[in-house]
Amino acid sequence: MPSFEELLNVKLTSLDTAVTSWTQMIGRLEKMTPDADAMKRHADKAVWRGENASVTKPFVGKTAKEFHDAVTEAQSIRDLIKDAHEKIKDAKADLKRAYENPPAGIVIYPNGVLSHSVHPDRRSADNTDPVPTQTDFDNLRKKLEAILQRAADADELCAWGLRSLVKGHPNDFGSTNYDSLRDVKDARQEIQDRKDGKEAAQLYGRLDTLDDKERDHLLKLVERGKNSTAFSAELLTNLNFRGRDDQEALLMIAQNLEGGGRDGQVSSADTKLLAALSTSVATATSPGAPLGPVGGVNSDWTFKLIDVARNGNGLPDRHPGQIKGGLSGFSTLTEMMAAGNAKYDGRFLDSVGFSIRNWEENADDPYAGVMKNWKGTQQDPMGGLMEAFTRNPEAAEAYFDPAKTDNLDYFLEKRDWPGGSVENEMPQDKIDSSARRSFGEALEAAVSGNPPGETLKIPAEHTKAQAAIFQNTVEAYGQNITGDPSGMPAGLRRPMAGMFAEYAGDIHQLLGMEKNLPSKYSGLTLTPEDLVPTMRAIAEDPKAFGRIHDAQTTYTAQGIDSYDGSAFLHDQGENSKSRELAAFVQQSNQSVGYMDAIRADVIYNMGDDEKSANGWNKMMQYHMIGAPVTGIPLAGDTLQRIVDIGTTEYMNNLNTEVDKETRKNLAANFSAGNDQIDRMIETAVKKKVPEDQWHLMDKDPGHFENNLQNEGKVRYGVGLTGGGGEMGKVVG
């Protein structure tokens, strides 16, 4: 690094002159290239025999290329010197400004030493100049050091780039092209990444015997280089583990890390190494990367990896390098893909999915030993693949698009899921880690365009493919689980709730209106006969049902908040905002009526078990109370207040007992949803109009009472009755 004094006084004239000289040199060389090209054209047209054909003709071609390489090298030299000159010049100017204009109370000497302009011990009593603190000195020193470092970096990169242009070319010109110091920095980093990749491959190869220091070093290497295509490709193509290379070594290392190595205990270091390995595979096989797709088709390296996972490597059972294909190989591959947060290219994901499905459909008994027990839900290789799909929503959308493939139908209707017969009996932690949960989250990503769990906007519009995936999924469960809420796999309930939250605007319309045309936002044609049974199955999980209710509350609050105060209090006639608001409030009541009918059925099926009913309500309340947890920023205090009041009112009125008589006449016994809407519109009035007009809410007859409250209650009853009738037969 140059000293303060060196940079402050450096003379840059020679660099400026060098740039001019090299520009002139480039011009002279460029004038010679046409003659060289002509010489090559003549040589190519001539008929050469004997040594002239094998020696003279290639020499002419090489000589012609040398003229072009000379131009390229001269341009690179000129551009590097020019860029370095500009950066050092800028650094010098910044240093000079700092030197001439230091902070008040500080002086900078020509050698860079900092000092008080007046020492605190020698200040006069009437001196009002600010006294710099140690922090002021530290900040200034950091600023000066950063300027010096910029100059040093420019000098170092320029020198490295100039040396690299001639390195390996003692007798000719090279074709390396540098437009700026940024190119040099990238080239130098790529060389380092390749070196690190080879070193990491060697350490991975000794995974069984690494000591703590070596393992820590490996972690640093892979964390630093995992997103570099050069590092990742070098790592993957130099792996050797227990005598096996490349793809075989990769799967064996992944299996070792997944199983915890020799002691069978998966450490945090193992988890990090597996995640980094996964990211390296995703990086190296991405478009434009060394092992990535060529012409839109996966590389041979990728296809071989998938083939080894499917078929194994044919070695006998006792061989230390054996890889078993099928369930074992695919599970190892997809568990690695699921590790960390790697985003795989859609072609890679699609090829893995195709191979697993093809194997399933053609093997006699692909999941022997795990088909009928919980183990199958955890070892199912589709689980890891679906987890990887959640990180690439666009790829998930394409994979499940019913207009392009039958994958959605396969997973919803045809696939015999390992452990599927017992998965609804599993404890929650097993449900959360099951393959079916991962499938649901992949669907959620596919229908929303976002990672699962992120409802970023209500209402949201969707592509034709996203809407088709959602519609087909709801229809599949709406038609198949009528009267049997347990017919939906438990692992799907929360992801399905996320999908319903994502389509909150559409669901509100489909439940609250008699739709003759597709829904406004996503073009859905679903009916309550499809929606209600599906939502009833989701409601077996109160947290999942709470998320749907939460999204509907948000959508309703946004709709209510969009009208000004007069629309709540005065009927302004046909086609007015007041009538539009009345219709919206009535639709909201009908929509929440359907949801209360679903909740009533849940409580009814719990019978006399008041503890379970209370527990269900509390779990839903835990999800909902306060502001929604959809991740949606609520714009404005009024909207936030409407949401808060609405959710609180709803939760304070939840029934804990529904008997047969109550169930026959829900409208006479249920009111939580209607009370919620009433409180929301009342809150809007109190926020939007002066207090001296609040009495108009009680005007009889009046717009607020008749069109909003009374008609809203009627439509709430319609929703309750309709929901009860479309739930299917009473269970129990």
Sum up the structure in keywords.
732 residues, 31 helices, two-stranded antiparallel sheet, mainly alpha
Q: Please give the count of helices.
A: 31
Strand content: under 5%
Provide the low-confidence segments as ranges: 625-633
Q: Indicate the percent of residues in helices.
A: 55-70%
Dominant shape: globular
End-to-end C-alpha gap: 82 Å
Mean pLDDT: 87
Major β-sheet, in short? 2 strands, antiparallel
The class by helix and strand makeup works out as mainly alpha
User: How would you write the strand order of the largest sheet?
Assistant: 1-2
* Cα-atom radius of gyration: 35 Å
Descriptive overview:
The protein contains 31 helices and four strands. With 732 residues, it is mostly helical. The strands form two sheets. A two-stranded antiparallel sheet has the order 1-2. It has a two-stranded antiparallel sheet with strand order 3-4. Strand 1 (106-108) and strand 2 form a beta hairpin. The protein is globular, with a radius of gyration of 35 Å. It starts with a helix and ends in a 7-residue tail after the last helix. The model is unreliable at 625-633 (pLDDT under 50).
Task: Give the secondary structure arrangement, pairings included.
Blueprint (H helix, E strand, L loop, with lengths): L3 H6 L3 H33 L5 H50 L5 E3 L5 E3 L17 H33 L14 H25 L6 H14 L3 H8 L3 E2 L2 E2 H14 L8 H17 L15 H12 L15 H12 L7 H17 L11 H6 L1 H9 L3 H8 L6 H8 L13 H5 L2 H14 L15 H17 L9 H13 L1 H9 L15 H11 L3 H20 L4 H4 L7 H29 L4 H15 L12 H15 L8 H5 L1 H4 L2 H17 L14 H23 L7
Antiparallel strand pairs: 1-2, 3-4
Helix pairs in contact: 2-3, 3-4, 4-5, 5-6, 5-7, 6-9, 7-9, 8-11, 10-11, 10-12, 11-14, 12-14, 12-15, 14-18, 15-18, 16-19, 18-19, 18-20, 19-22, 20-23, 21-23, 21-25, 23-25, 23-26, 23-27, 23-30, 25-30, 25-31, 27-30, 30-31
